[in-house]
Specification:
The structure is a single chain. This protein has 261 residues and is of the alpha/beta class. It has a single domain, classed as Vaccinia Virus protein VP39 (Rossmann fold), CATH 3.40.50. Helix 2 links the parallel strand 1 and strand 2. The relative contact order is 0.16. The strands form 2 sheets. It has a 7-stranded mixed sheet, with helices on both faces. Strands 6-9-8 form a 3-stranded antiparallel sheet, with no helix packed on it. It is globular, with a radius of gyration of 18 Å. The longest helix is centred in the first third of the chain and has 26 residues. Helix 1 packs parallel to helix 2 and helix 4 packs across helix 8. It is built from 8 helices and 10 strands.
Length: 261
Amino acid sequence: MTEYLLSRRRSPDVEQARLRLLEEYHDPLSVSQLDAIGVGKGWRCLDVGAGAGSVTRMLAERVGSTGSVLAVDLDTSLLEGLASDRVKVRRHDLLSDELPQSAFDLVHARLLLMFLSPRLGALERLVSAARPGGWVASIAPDFTTVALSPPSLVWRRVWSRFLDVVMAGGLDPGYGARLCGDLCAVGLVDVHADYIGRRYPGGTLPSRLLSLTLERVREQMVLIGAESREIDEARRLLEDPASTFIPPTTCVARGRRIGRS
């Protein structure tokens, strides 16, 4: 695949700060998801696109000494410190590298599928790694629900440039709306999805997360016509407590591979 749109290579300090906010925002959703599935002692788990490793750490704690976790990502630099007898870390490209087949009680991929194409093919690869009766769990946002008020023409221009940049980089900004249907399309059963929509004042966690994401793709937005001063203003609006911010709707979904344990 081409280089990941938000590769740490381009801006490691900003990206690491963004990943910390991302984990702070999404980790409670992942905890609820793993609780609902019942991940516990002795489970064999695969964490694909493991990023900075917060879900890998959750899984390692849950599976205990009798279980195992395989954490894979294109960039494993933030995962290597987690390697242990219980946790294995590997560099892996889901679209080209093979995974163990029918091997895991849980296959987990948070905020990953939206970056990959063909997405259904990537999801089929995840399903093939789950054992019969095993679970596939994913979280994906739908950026088409994002809104900022009071209305601002600057914000609308910057947001449009942002969407152009991420789509050119291969990201489907509306994938959260498709995720549940895709889990059904690849033949999973017991599919369940929660769609979570919220509203926050500016300057809170989700608006700061999006502000840093705008900063990460500033260069690409300027190349397609955005003005840097307008990006600055959009970030200021996101971080202004007088603003009201509606973040992406988040789809938290799971399904089980057909077959007996």
